[in-house]
């Protein structure tokens, strides 16, 4: 930001005043010093003295004008008749010398002071105050002395100028110093992008400058205007830069589906209100733009998903008819220009995978021709229509001949042989050696599309191979289609009940469709029309008033919360009676150096609700980290019957400090836990994901006092020694923990 440049400004070369530059103006004349009269009283008396001299001078002048040349002698009285009258006592006798006249009043009083003397007296008063009183206001003195600079008498002008010059120099120095300081402060504020404070600083500086200063009068307005213009320019540039940065980072986060970086929140809370408002408006614009694009993208994806499902249906039909030529043409990208735009992950690769299936099928059929040409063994060949049983009897072109039991010889087009028929000609070893076993699996999937999602993943899993992308995407689309159909049917029921207005029927219909809606939300299938139906149902059911409470140590509802406690208990001989079993490798369930189980308890449930509310849904969530033997494990949560003490639970006891033991070690006896689990979850192959248990009933009963809050036991319930599952935390060292991955209890509530 620009500084106020004072180097080119000149003022009267007068000696420095009696005070240092920058001395503040008099603000409290009432202060007393040294036992003298208050300063305001002294100034007033001195000013009155000078004024009295001027008034006295004017009175004398007036008196002189009225009585100049008049003597105090009585005029003779006129005669009443022609007769002589006696002389008065004041008349001189005839023939005598006239008595001298009585002196006039003007001749008897002292000489009056002149205007010059009165002016000099008042100037001297101010000179004395300036010299002797360091708190006397220089600006006030300049104002009072200014008329004497134009006085007719040269002596008065010279005296006034002599007193004023150091005062003006002092005022100029103070004005320049104040202006320079304000400019520097405003520059610092502008560098910090606090432009409103910078502007306030400059304007306040102008208001407080000593305007009796010649420098302030001649230069301050222009300097202020220049600085304000520079400030406005910098503010405009900062706003443009903030908007560009916000939009770039916002788009990057949205496109990566990542959390908004802290910088965006900082820009939304910018200290400059104009920039803050501009960024907020940009966010609203971007959100609206993103919603519009997302809507179009969802509509496009819906159309493309439908197109892909149609493609898979046509491909099935072609292969089922043995028309591999038509199937190959279907899989060409230039024949499916719309499909490559989306609808599945990696559309080009999905098409290429389908084309690879067709090519592999050709090789499998060619291999069958080769084997049938060389062998004469008996076969049973299921065909697309019918079956042929007999002995292989040569090959002609694309036909395999079979001699039937009665001696008849029939030809079968090799492409009409099903997957089971190929396995009758080719054994699995030969197919595996030719890397064609997957082709026969694919052929079976094409022939039995309704069952493909059940047997094909198992076949690849047994072979310890991943399901090919094109089949995985096909299964995903088909699952989505089933969900979509289910949601459509159930949402129609919700709409029907909404028209009826029966709250309980709407609630029942809405609860029935909720799982499908959750799946659609995750897969992006929630259209605007569906959202409108959901919103109407939620409004009727009072869902809009629902609140969400999260209990997570060190995170929510505040950073001080520590009520969600867990204990690791271990059967391992060295840990069986320890209350401080380590979790360096995570909270463990299953078998790892002995059986492992987890105790969990949430305190402060009522306090977390903050107001009378009903818990509609409660979910305990644990973050599963990399586990060596997790897939297939069923983990159940069981209510504890004993008042387990946090940080004191072990494999052998529920209060290690008092040595109060479980009825059965590991809290597995009927006197320790409920026989039936409250919730259970079956784990898949995924890792680094949240696992959720529905504990609504337990939490509701704790809050209503129907059950004691003794906590829950987490353990594997299907072959406990066969599994080993680990959940966050990953280490005991707090310095490397991620608080957001700690166990959490999610509460969905509604006002009572």
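^ Assign residues to that structure.
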């Amino acid at each position: 930001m620009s500084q106020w440049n004072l180097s080119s400004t000149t003022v009267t070369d007068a000696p420095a005043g009696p005070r240092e530059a920058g001395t503040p103006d008099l603000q409290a004349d009432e202060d007393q010093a040294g036992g003298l009269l208050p300063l305001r009283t002294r100034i007033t008396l001195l000013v009155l003295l000078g004024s009295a001299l001027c008034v006295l001078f004017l009175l004398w002048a007036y008196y002189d004008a009225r009585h100049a040349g008049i003597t105090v002698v009585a005029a003779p009285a006129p005669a009443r008749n022609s007769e002589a009258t006696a002389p008065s006592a004041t008349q001189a006798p005839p023939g005598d010398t006239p008595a001298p006249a009585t002196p006039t009043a003007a001749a008897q009083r002292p000489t009056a002071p002149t205007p010059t003397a009165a002016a000099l007296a008042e100037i001297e008063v101010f000179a004395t105050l300036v010299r002797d009183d360091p708190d006397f206001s220089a600006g006030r003195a300049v104002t009072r002395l200014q008329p004497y600079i134009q006085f007719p008498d040269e002596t008065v002008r010279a005296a006034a100028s002599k007193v004023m010059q150091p005062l003006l120099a002092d005022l100029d120095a103070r004005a320049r110093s104040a202006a320079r300081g304000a400019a520097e402060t405003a520059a610092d504020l502008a560098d910090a992008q606090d432009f409103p404070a910078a502007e306030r600083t400059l304007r306040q500086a102008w208001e407080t400058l000593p305007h009796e200063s010649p420098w302030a009068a001649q230069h301050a307005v222009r300097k202020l205007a220049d600085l304000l213009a520079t400030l406005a320019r910098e503010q405009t540039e900062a706003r443009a830069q903030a908007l560009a940065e916000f939009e770039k980072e916002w788009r990057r986060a949205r496109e990566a589906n990542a959390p908004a970086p802290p910088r965006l929140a900082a820009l939304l809370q910018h200290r400059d209100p104009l920039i803050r408002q501009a960024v907020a408006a940009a966010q609203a614009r971007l959100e609206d733009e993103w919603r519009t694009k997302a809507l179009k993208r969802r509509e496009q994806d819906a159309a493309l998903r439908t197109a892909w499902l149609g493609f898979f249906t046509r491909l099935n039909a072609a292969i089922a008819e043995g028309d591999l030529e038509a199937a190959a043409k279907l899989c060409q990208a230039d024949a499916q220009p719309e499909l490559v735009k989306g609808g599945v992950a990696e559309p080009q690769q999905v098409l290429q995978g389908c084309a690879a299936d067709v090519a592999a099928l050709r090789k499998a059929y060619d291999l069958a021709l080769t084997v049938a040409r060389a062998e004469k063994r008996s076969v049973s060949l299921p065909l697309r229509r019918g079956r042929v049983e007999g002995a292989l009897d040569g090959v002609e072109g694309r036909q395999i001949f079979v001699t039937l039991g009665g001696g008849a010889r029939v030809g079968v087009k090799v492409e009409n042989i099903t997957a089971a028929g190929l396995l009758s000609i080719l054994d699995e070893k030969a197919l595996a050696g030719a890397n064609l076993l997957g082709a026969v699996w694919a052929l079976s999937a094409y022939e039995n599309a309704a069952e493909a999602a059940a047997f094909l993943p198992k076949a690849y899993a047994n072979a310890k191979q991943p399901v090919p992308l094109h089949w995985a995407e096909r299964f995903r689309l088909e699952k989505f289609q089933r969900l979509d159909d289910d949601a459509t049917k159930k949402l129609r029921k919700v709409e029907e009940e909404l028209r009826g207005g029966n709250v309980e029927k709407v609630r029942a219909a809405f609860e029935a469709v909720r799982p499908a809606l959750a799946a659609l939300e995750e897969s992006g299938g929630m259209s605007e029309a569906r959202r409108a139906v959901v919103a109407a149902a939620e409004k009727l059911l009072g869902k809009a008033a629902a609140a969400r409470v999260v209990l997570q140590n060190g995170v929510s509802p505040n950073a001080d919360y520590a009520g969600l406690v867990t204990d690791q208990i271990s059967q391992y001989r060295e840990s069986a009676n320890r209350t401080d079993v380590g979790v360096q490798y995570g909270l463990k369930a299953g078998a790892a150096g002995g059986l492992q189980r987890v105790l969990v308890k949430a305190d402060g449930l009522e306090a977390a609700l903050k107001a009378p509310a009903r818990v509609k849904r409660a979910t305990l969530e644990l973050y599963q980290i990399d586990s060596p033997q997790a897939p297939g494990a069923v983990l159940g949560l069981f209510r504890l019957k004993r008042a387990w003490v946090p940080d004191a639970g072990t494999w052998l006891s529920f209060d290690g400090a008092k040595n109060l033991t479980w009825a059965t070690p590991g809290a597995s006896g009927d006197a320790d836990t409920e026989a039936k689990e409250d919730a259970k979850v079956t784990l898949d192959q995924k890792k680094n994901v949240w696992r959720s248990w529905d504990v609504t009933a337990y939490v509701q009963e704790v809050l209503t006092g129907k059950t004691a809050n003794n906590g829950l036991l987490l353990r594997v319930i299907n072959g406990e020694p066969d599994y080993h599952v680990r959940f966050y935390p990953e280490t005991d060292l707090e310095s490397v923990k991620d608080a957001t991955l700690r166990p959490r209890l999610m509460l969905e509530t509604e006002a009572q």
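The chain has four domains: 11-25+32-66+103-256, 305-467, 479-545, 549-751.
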